[in-house]
Amino acid sequence: MTQDMQGPPSQAAASAAPVAPVAATYFDGKSSRAHAVTVSVAGKTAVVESLDGRELRRAPLSALRVSERVRRAPRLVTFDDGAFCEIHDHAALDALLAATGHREGWVARAQNSWKLVGMALAGLIVALLLGYYVLLPWTAAAVALSVPAAVEARLGEATLRSLDEGLLTASTLPAARQQQIRAAFAALSLPADPGHDYRLLFRQGGRLGANAIALPGGTIVITDELVALVGSGAGLLGVLAHEAGHVAGRHGLQQAVQASAIGAFTAYVFGDVSTLLAGVPAALLTLRYSRDHERAADAYAVDVMRRNRLPVTALADVLERLERHHRGDAAAGAKDSQAADEGSFFSTHPLTRERIEALRGAAATGR
What we know:
The chain is built from 17 helices and 12 strands. By secondary structure, the protein is α+β, with helices and mostly antiparallel strands. This is Beta-barrel assembly-enhancing protease.
């Protein structure tokens, strides 16, 4: 950036003593030849002279542009025809500029102040943290809630196809057992949620193990391993109510949008969600619910269990059983421990111990 060499007139500048000429290198803009010169100011005119005293050119101060000071880099005084003087002596040029009444802008002064640069950096870090922890979740929630129900359902179908093609296989759970669980879930009284039609699907979890996965649109996938581990009683219904809480809150979509922050921001600002949502199914396969989402889904499950007169402790018991099962697998030492951990219930539903304590507290207090 550059500024006019002539600044606002000042009484101090007008009465200041003459300033010594400044050594410079002059380029006339017509050839690459460098000329050793001095630059001085006479009234409101800049004068360029060779070292033997010959005047090479003069120009009004208002026609000159002075580059900003950047530490050790030379500064340029540019004429309107493209010719310029390159000056390395910053102190001498500063004195000459001060004599003309020239004053650098606050941006230029800030760039050369370590204190101001440090403050700007700290402000940027604070802004980024606020953006990540406050603005991004808020934006993701707004985008997720703005997705039409039909689009959300299609995203759920796309995610299910991805799961079936890469992670899950057909269920071996007897059809009668599947129907029993579906009937029990359908009989639950759930909070009003007109945008979702819930359905339960059963699959062998494979690497996902004992797990339940809520997909956009209302589909909840239950693995055979989860049914084998926790049974089909009140505890499993609590897990399904928890997953329904994720669906109702569109938590999966929110997490996927946060994972695509740049696309989410662009979609929110410009109103085009098509490009963003194309990558949502892949993001949903690796989502990890946030603390707030887990707490909200647990609160939803507690409400469902109470309105259906089911013991809240049953859900806490299931989580404890899953936790013990997970610890047992870890102690046994899986061949691919990283893959096993990534596929566990706890990789997608974290903070289980905290949740168990909160559920037992809710059961004890009735709140």
